[in-house]
Amino acid sequence: MSDQTPESSTYTGESDPMKQPVNLAQILEILQNFQNLAPKAEPIENSSNQPLNLAEKLNDRNYAIWARKMSLALDGRGRLKHIIAAPLKSDDAKYIKWRQADSTVITWILENIESDIVNQYIDYPTAWDLWKGIKATYSSGKDPLQIYDLMVKASEIKQGAQPLEKIYSQLQAVWKEIDRRRPNPMKCPEDMTIFTQIQQQNRLYQFLQAINNEFDAEKRDILKTEPLPSIEEAYAQIRREAARKGIMKEEGPSSGESPSGIGGGLAATRAAIRSDFRQSSSRIYEDKSQLKCTFCGGMKHTAEG
Questions:
Q1: Whole-number Å distance between alpha carbons of 143 and 166
Q2: Where is the stretch described as Disordered (predicted)?
Q3: Is the pLDDT of residue 191 over 50?
Q4: pTM passes above 0.70
């Protein structure tokens, strides 16, 4: 009988899987198995079903800005595809889940329409159809009359007593509406760039024409620049000058206040001289016709002189 026991026998390790060489294909297979076992992430569009409330509801005057804000809000919640892509068919495997999300989008849109016009949109079957219906009602598209009105409006904007920031914001709003209705018509990239440059120059002229004449010197400096600055650069330059003028007005003496400094001292000195002159003049031209001397009894003088 052999003295060797199982415990004392030499273990070669040839059957130990931990000591077997592993190639790249096996590593990739192991990683793939782990990925299959991991729970799948929920679709992004299920991330939020909370109410969506815009600051301003849709009415007959604000479609452009409302549509932009609503699109951004839907995109932020992963639901933008419900208004830009055709609806799923009812026999699609994902239809039920999609339908639930689409109903939420319809609710969000309807809740952000003014109460006096919302009833005409209640019966649209999908968010995509609802969005198309709203766009057909309020979007003027490339209507030449709308573009003409916007061009006239931009040319009639004047600063007057308004802050510089307000008139700049008004012009930007009108320009964006024009761009939405009349986008760059060029096809070649070079032509598109040239069109944009000409358009920006025209708007620079509109901005300079809209602001007050107190900035005429700055306007001339801007128009002499080669090449012409952008609208943003021109606005920044005018704004800096407006701020400088505002500071100087605050530091200067206001009406009703007493002058100070060197000018104030000179003014006070002149006032004192005028006062002394008036007093001395009153003494020089004093009427002595009624005076009587108590010493000699003569008239027009006194004993004191």
A1: 27
A2: 247-267
A3: yes
A4: no
